[in-house]
Design brief:
The protein folds into three domains: about 170 residues, Methylthiotransferase, N-terminal domain (Rossmann fold); about 230 residues, tm_1862 like domain (pyruvate-formate lyase- activating enzyme), CATH 3.80.30; about 55 residues, Nucleic acid-binding proteins (OB fold (Dihydrolipoamide Acetyltransferase, E2P)), CATH 2.40.50. The protein has 14 helices and 22 strands. A six-stranded parallel β-sheet has the order 4-3-5-6-7-8, sandwiched between helices. The protein has a five-stranded mixed barrel with strand order 18-19-20-22-21. The chain starts with 8 loop residues before the first strand and ends with a strand.
Amino acid sequence: MRNNTYNRKVDMSTKTVEISLLEKEEQNGYMAAVRAHNDAFAERNGFRRTAFVLTLGCQQNESDSEKISGMAQAMGYDLTDTPDDAYLIVVNTCAIREHAEKRALSLVGQYKHVKAKRPETIIAVCGCMTAQEHRVKQLKNSYPYVDILFGTSQLHRFPEFLAEKIAKGKRVLRSDEPENTVPEDMPVRRESNYRAWVSAMYGCNNFCSYCIVPYVRGRERSRRKEQIVKEVRELVAQGYNDITLLGQNVNSYGKDLGADYDFADLLAEIDKIEGDYLLHFMTSHPKDATHKLIDVMAQGTHIAHHFHLPMQSGSDAVLKAMNRRYDFARYVSIVDYIREKMPDATITSDIIVGFPGETEEDFEATLTALGRARFDMVYSFIYSPRKGTPAAEMEQVPDEIKSARFERLLDRQNEISLENNKKLEGQTLRVLCDGKSKNKSEAINGRTDGGRIVFFNGDESMTGKFINVKITRSETFALYGEII
């Protein structure tokens, strides 16, 4: 049974809860109990139970899944890349769009046959989707073979839930117990040996009218600076050379911890760590993109000259309806300052097409904004209503209009992206090699500091290394070059 009298350190100004040593020890005890259970199975049967972790959604979900995999390994499971033979299946879900939730439910439904073939298989569902009451009810009632449900703030309690399921045999459904936690020192099994995610903070306070994130990930909770710096230093020492700080609104880092914490100061502190590595961060909010932050980036040794700065719309009326708390003039002034201080900077953005109430004039303002900002790449989305958000109750734009505008947006941005890429022909860029291309069998591929994909001739021994590549040809979504 769970001991509810935890000795937690609480920052009373923010209600952020740091997991105490007592609770860490308790979770370690649960991990030891599950491991003993799995060790006994392996001794009897001559092989170990396996675990399959499926990740849907953003980089924060990928980071969470690395912790889930790390805990699974610590509990005596071998990891597998197929669910068919797994004794533990964990589906880490996304809720950013309706399509993502439907896909998650479909995949969970497919695992019913695994449970039928091997009843002792344990199926767990976690992530953002499990923070929504209507989805929780659906999983409880229509997916009886799902054994464990838990939310994003309960990640550190996964060993406890699994141990309870094994010991009692009953379903463990705890997704309705949100906690403002900041766990530390969790086991991690990283997917890459040269790229790493590091969570700087969790949650979001912005409440953009279209976004479900504050409802499913909770309010902003920042990690202590010394913990983040320690993790990055260890990664650099282990040979990781591409490190990304994560947060739903990462550049608001530290506001819940007091005046001594600031994202620009955090970047500057990490930049002091010696080594050959790149430091990225995402995702940012324009309202927190300060000149100080841009100056630190420009002056840094290891900080990538890449700023992902979601604009969402070029229309001030739409931005106000979105509750974005800036207008286009403010937004483009940030873009101008980035380019002034870092002429080589890659600037990428997010744009939503067809937000409720968007007029043709509003959409034309977005097209004009593309021409003014001249992003290197845009992640564009057709607006999808999210139940429980204010925008879902607004007057919706017809689907056919949204689709037509989306195509026009893509056409305009593709022109700009190609023009920007053409300017790189003849230049030599530093590229972090990702190995053999999945799409072009004859080529090796990698990414520039700004995230552009580059194809070049080489061999897989270069994977994880920085390579100088002279760009010989460009396309809208990729560059081609030769090793220098």
